[in-house]
Amino acid sequence: MTLSTERLGHAQRLVALQSTLEQIRLQQQIEPLLALALEFIQAVFSYPLVWIATYNPDRRELTGVHGAMPKTEKTAWAQQGLKVLPGDYFDQVLLTGQPAVIADLQQDQRAGQWQTIASRTEIEGALIYPLWHHNQPYGVILMGSHHWGGNPRPEEMTHLSILCGALGAALHDLQPQGQSPGQLHQSLQAAIGQLTLISGFEERLTVVLQFLHQALSPAQTSLYWLDTQQQCFWQRLFYRAEMSKRSRGKRSTPIEVPLSDIQHFHQALRTEPVVAVSEIQGTVSTKAPARLMHQMRRRSLLSAPLMINQQLCGFLAVEGTEPRVWRDQEKQLIQAFAQLANLASPTMMEEGLPSASNNNHNRLIFQTLQSVAQSQDWTQTQQQIMEQVCLHLQSQWMAVLSPDPRTGQFQIVQQIHTPKLKPSTDPFQPLSEVDRNMIRRSEQAIAIDNLTDDLRLLAWKPKIDALGIKALLLSHTTQDQQLDQILLLGGLTPRSWTTADCDLLDRVGQALNAGRQQHRLQVENQQQKRLNTIVPQSLIRQDQAANPKQLVTDALQDMVEMLSVPAAAVVFWEGGQAEIAACVASPPDFDLAQNTPIDMAQDALLQSLLTLGPPQIQEDALQNIVAVPVQDLTPETRLWLNCRALEQVLAIPILESDQHQSLGAVIFGNNFRPGGDSRTWDLQLVGGAAMLVRHLASRYRSMVSLKRNRKQLQSLNCLNWYQYRQIERHCQTALTYQRDPQVQGAASPAAQALLAKSQAAIEKIEQLMQIDSEQFPLEETSLPIASLLRQSLARVSTLANQRQLWTQVHNLTSNSTATGVNPKLEQILYELLLAACYRSQAGQRIDIWCRLADSQWLELSITDQGLINPQMIADLTNRSDVDAPTLKSPPGKHLRACQTLMKRLGGQLEFAQLDDGRVLSRLMLPLKSSLRV
């Protein structure tokens, strides 16, 4: 399937991709959005068959929107619908989010009706790419080739991955996605408010079913209860939107399923917070209750267990008549509603009067669920919940621990304590395998009444003793076997923890875990939005940068904003030496010195980035990135990377995709968060930063090359001007000697001397023609200012007399001497006087003013009353590029050459128009010694 013809070069393909992505972000309708994708694929690739379709998960159907087909085929097929069948290629791609490569579309039965179309159009190799966003399918792109095989180039896969990712995000924004997280939270909050007004258990369960059904819109929502005597689940309540109020929740023949028929499903309910089943995944899943789904006549099921006193008493079920991919938000929502149903358990609502302690527990759990549902700032919400738990259970310390997979230690994510305690932020030591297994297998909170006499958690005892904690309550916040987060509750004196205390901490831990997961999803969503916003804007800013310094500074600021790091630097190297070109840091914890020299030979970090393979695909680009803990850096690197509070360093080489030699590197550093939570690098954001670095490499190389070329052009213009004026001068000298009367027809010594002078002038012309910009001699000599002015005025005297101009020198001493180059300095002054003469009218004056600026500089100013183009003065003053219109031809071209040469001589040349209309040409000449003028 590899194509033989490349319609566009690599750089052109990247430009086309960037342009397409920018246009995609501007689209508000699906059809023109996908038309852009079709146009890009046809322009960049040579697939004769292209089909782009959107996906309807409820109907399990693909609907064609745009496409291209061989000329022999009619185009009506592009808008056809296609049912997605279990096990076919489209089902596989939509479920996994991974592209499928088909060697021969004509021979593969899993291609469905496309097998027939492929045979008719002689299509063989094919590629199906999903349009995914946030683990949800929104459509597919099918591309076919006349060639057999399934070997698309990595470059093609990279471009298609970027394009399809952008299309998936755009379709996510344009297509209705059901309820947003905020709406789901509102549903949960409304249900909580309604439950507070109802006291009956059955009525509360009915409210839970109603709100859950409205939030997820399934075919039916049911509550199944466990009959321990009959060892079966039976349908206690159910809700359907189309049911009448009288028949709602009633059923003539309730469904009953023996536990023996759904053993794996029963076990999953006991150990997992949510069990999701769909025919999309096939019926081979051990968790799928085949008997139950057969009786319900359902093809998808989402269930959450109902627990009373840590015992399974039933489950909530959201049922669908069609296969359905259950979203994470839907799973979290049913889990939250299951917890609401748990709080309405009959042991607390129907069996006698509840105790004051239980009422307080319920109130606190309700408040916790409300806080989680309404949370805007998760850190603050978790802090408030922990404070309420400590106050309710009369404890003095509470902490949330998170394991560090790299070290095995448990970092303190967040903690609260009384003013008497001064806990440290140092991590807890790794637990023994016995203690880890104890926490994993525990079905309820672990209570330690007196730590002094208890042998559990021995690795933590020194730290807990140092905190002054004597009694401890520990809860694992998740119901699986992975140690994700742990809640620790401590008291300063030994105490007996009740079952209600353990249950409360478990419930709070589960709520905090659900809130943390929701917060993590929100953070990921924000990161994706930040990536989609910053990357295109940064690419535009890089393209609009006026100079390399602005380019590097802007790009670094954008990458720092995207990665949210406290320190970063751009390092460029050349000839074995490296230097910090730009940096972002906050002293004193982060202190980088710009323009700091770095010895490349002694720096292991930079040596590892010096020579790398070109990043042809995204995975290769990420492989070139180096992430190193600070403690693993060599002393030479730590010397210039002076960031004492850093934890990790991430280095991305500044490397173009077609180059092997990197220009430098972008170094990022992160630190410990308050509370000891260690930061990790988000690969998605790092990939975005790597894309910006590659664009930076291309733009920087182009700008440096352009600057070098412009400098060379200025140097050549300067040399051409100088050669032209000197040749003009020597030609006039030679002609003057040859036309002398003594030379005509005479062989006297005087005639011979004049001819020798003429020949010497001609030889100087030949020498001038042989020098180039690299050999332009700039040897310094001492030149009296009076001689300089006298020679320059003598050269323009003829022109001044012809145009009836007056020239005068003011305030000049006879011994003023400047350090310059003869005759180059004289040539510059001559050019300035020549330009003044040409722009002046008959009878006007040209004045030359001599003034001592200070002990090091002498100022020579020429004023005239001639007419001059103001734009030319502006271009000369602003040091405009050589391609400015006023500087492309004389006199602007010659005056710019004078500026360039004067700068090389160590002086300055400025132009201005005075308020009285006179034109000022100011020369600043370096003096040989202190003079009086």
Automatic annotation (TrEMBL):
Taxonomy, superkingdom: Bacteria
Pfam family, one: GAF
GAF domain residues: 29-181, 200-354, 377-526
Name used for this protein in its record: GAF domain-containing protein
Annotated organism of origin: Acaryochloris thomasi RCC1774
